[in-house]
Design goal:
The complex is a heterodimer of chains A (448) and B (31). With 448 residues, chain A is α+β, with helices and mostly antiparallel strands. Chain A is built from five helices and 23 strands. The two termini of chain A are 37 Å apart. Classes of the chains: A alpha+beta (448), B mainly beta (31).
Chain lengths: 448, 31
């Protein structure tokens, strides 16, 4: 089929009580069934509306408040899909698997692909030198059941986020894909989206059409918020991205959506309530084959072709989420600025409707190793509103802005072809495509 | 389009070739 109906469900996960010691299997299953009761409603609603596939969030069945010991009763042994198993038909074939059985039956009874994130456990012994002391591996695992309830994909999260000490790193990278009548799918989880392995490899080497993305993403305003970052990734990588986020306003977790290379089809961002949200949208099954498929961008072309804008004012440094940026202030209502850090120079041309005295903006550059919750190299050009008019607050979390920009053009001398462009408006709303465009020479610019 | 109230705009680049084989870990669990 040329198109398909995708669904994602932002689930307000029912979290277990914090315990120092593991609960019983029965108590664990009770909590997981409460979450699956909610997921079941979303699956049924999506199926009734014609969805072919539904994605639910990372940790959506049991939450994230665990130690290595206390998560154990929530885990099941998840076999490799090559065993060709429909848990709804043979629930006991691989031992105790009530969660896999219920998810498989949800898919089978509603004739819809169901994507969920649960916990896998594998015994090991001293002959395996890497075997943990407690004699088992525990994996953060995505599973996919097709519309007959068959287990068609199992993915162990490769890039764990630092606080996920309840899980083990898989020994080897798993590149998990599967074919459907509506295109080839890849799958990974949350923090993996920053990676080359598996995120870029699935797209560039295995040529998937769509990516399934369960996530539990806590937003870090203004640059690491779920919706702008994930939609930018889909656009830059040229694939569909079905992103289902957990919903928990205490942890700033919200922001799910269905994104295609050309547009943000639908998204949801809600920091006001504790409600879940189902989203559906039609997607092209094979976006690469579409005439509207975005042309490749040479991200450094424009910036390397112009002279840096001279400026009499001095730069200043500021921290954004543990990364030390080099900033320069936008002092006037219109102008051209350049700020550099190491090999990266960022250029900005802009025009404000008016220069407000109660708001300050800065152009920032970062070129270096990010080291906090994982280690990865970044080159970032960013225009940000500062928290207050005190320039030491540039880079700190912000939520609203009143300064209106009539024109803007942002570019950088990037040394990488993997650049994700994002525009976030006041209230953390995504800047709609009608306001900006990406030129082939690498400018994020307002539409004239 | 009309003037827009910008919170942030960014070109967020990833330099994969400089990365370690796995994104690695920072300090252990932050509550």
């Amino acid at each position: 089929t040329d198109t398909f109906i995708a669904a994602v469900y932002e689930h307000a996960v029912i979290l277990p009580n914090k315990t120092e010691t593991p609960v019983s299997k029965e108590e664990a299953l009770l909590l997981m069934n409460k979450n699956m009761d909610v997921l079941e409603k979303a699956v049924k609603l999506a199926a009734r509306q014609g969805a072919h596939i539904i994605v639910t969030p990372e940790d959506g069945v049991y939450g994230w408040v665990f130690t290595r010991e206390t998560i154990y009763p929530y885990l099941e042994d998840i076999p490799h899909p090559e065993v060709n198993w429909i848990p709804c038909k043979e629930p006991q074939r691989f031992g105790y698997a009530p969660v896999q059985e219920r998810l498989s039956c949800l898919a089978k009874h509603n004739s819809i692909y169901v994507v969920a994130n649960i916990g896998d456990k594998k015994p090991c012994n001293a002959s395996d030198l890497q075997c943990p002391p407690d004699g088992r591996y525990q994996y953060n695992t995505n599973v996919v059941f097709d519309s007959e309830g068959r287990l068609v994909a199992r993915y162990h999260k490769y890039n764990l986020y630092a606080p996920e000490t309840q899980f083990d790193f898989p020994k080897d990278l798993e590149l998990v894909t599967f074919g459907t009548p509506f295109g080839k799918f890849g799958i990974f989880t949350c923090f993996d989206i920053f990676s080359y392995d598996p995120a870029v490899v699935l797209v560039e080497k295995l040529q998937v059409d769509s990516v399934l993305f369960p996530t539990a993403w806590g937003n870090l305003l203004p640059l690491l918020s779920a919706v702008p970052f994930h939609s930018a990734w889909a656009r830059a990588m040229g694939v569909n991205l079905l992103a289902a986020n957990a919903h928990n306003t205490t942890n700033h977790m919200t922001g799910s959506g269905i994104y295609s290379p050309e547009a943000v089809n639908v998204y949801h961002y809600d920091m006001e309530t504790e409600s879940g949200q189902l989203m559906l949208s039609e997607l092209k099954s094979r976006p690469r084959n579409e005439p509207t498929y975005p042309a490749p961008v040479d991200w450094g072309a424009y910036a390397k072709g112009i002279r840096p804008f001279s400026s009499e004012q001095s730069d200043f440094s500021g921290m954004f989420y543990f990364d030390r940026f080099t900033f320069t202030e936008l002092k006037r209502s219109a102008g051209n600025y350049t700020v550099c850090q190491k090999d990266l120079c960022c250029h900005l041309t802009y025009k404000m409707s008016e220069k407000r005295t109660d708001e300050s903006y800065a152009l920032g550059a970062f070129d270096g190793l990010h080291t906090v919750e994982g280690q990865y190299y970044l080159q970032i050009c960013a225009l940000v509103k500062c928290q207050t008019t005190d320039l030491s607050t540039c880079g700190k979390p912000i939520g609203s802005a009143f300064t209106k920009f009539e024109e803007f053009s942002l570019s950088g001398t990037f040394g990488t072809s993997y650049v994700f462009p994002q525009l976030t408006l006041s209230g953390s709303q995504l800047g709609p495509e009608r306001y900006y465009e990406i030129s082939r020479d690498g400018r994020l610019k307002s539409r004239s | 389009g009309p003037p827009v109230p910008v919170l942030a705009m960014a070109l967020y680049g990833r330099v994969f070739e400089k990365d370690a084989p796995r994104l690695g870990q920072g300090p252990v669990k932050s509550e």
